[in-house]
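Milestone M4 deliverable, item 7.
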Amino acid sequence: MQYPFDPIHADIESQVLGLPTGIPDSDAVRQARQEASAPESFAALGQALSRQLRYREAIEAYTAGLKLEPENLSLLRLRAGRYLTTLQPDLALRDFEACLSLGAEKLDCLYRMGLAHYYAGRYSMAMECFEACSPLCDDEMGIAVIYWHTLSSTRTGKDCSLLRRYHTGMAVGHHTAYEMAMSVWGKAEDSQAVLHRLEREPDDLEWGITMYGLCRHPDCVCRESLLKRILHRNGFWPSFAYLAAWNDTHPSNAN
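Output delivered:
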């Protein structure tokens, strides 16, 4: 697949740990800096920085815009997403809650609030968010919600209730990786057969989502080695599954 970010981009360590990126400005960033003076132009700067995965700097740009217009829903939503992808879950939650109060889409916000709670280790609260947004989902978003609810449930020892909504033939659209992982959890496929298929998967995003879902299965006997494999294959590190894998091995950084 064609990745939605620039070939020269920041790594996860710089963005989660706040280290220097060493990334020069792209032409888009340079132009956006020159024009940044109003909320919309700060949004453009943040989005240009985000294409270089310079999420910490994007947050600064969105914050500058919000100082001019504190209830700008677009800027709040953009900043909330960047707090999430830098594993700052409590700040992400604050912004997503503000977005909801301003009339943002419930499914969009509740799903990501569930992820924020998951990254923070509040798995019961993550479950509540996923359960709240599940009735709003079609199959495509539904399989993603089932995936994260199931992983949250098993980490609390609670019933994986949304997993019962999984069935073969769901219209999952582009969320095929979530479906592949849940096919094992739902006992429609054997884990070894799926792992064998993954060995031929060239796409880092698809591979990482499925592999993370498999490594969190309670029957997985090689979780640590699979987590290390996920972290090694970092071509799409901003994905929610890769961030979760990184966070599982660096848990103190999610607070």
